[in-house]
User: What shape does this take?
Amino acid sequence: MRSGTVRVVNVKPAEQLQDPQIVEALAWPSELIRQHGWEYEIWSGADRVLLENVRFLAGYRRHGVVPAAEVEEACHRPLRAVPLEGPGTGL
Assistant: This one.
């Protein structure tokens, strides 16, 4: 983001958010991501056509668009405590 904050978004269909295994699977990345001081959100309920288009376009990702040095730097920022619940977290 322009502010320098990193936000990771996990997208799941709304009906899957009732499955305890899915809820558990979404909880561990939330904790890990927040330990890095990043934001974590779970999005659901998007239009099915929109999601299909995103899945299709994901097949054309170009590795290296974000310089490896920036990825490496973001992964090694100091950790800080962040609340595990709050707006936009889905938790």
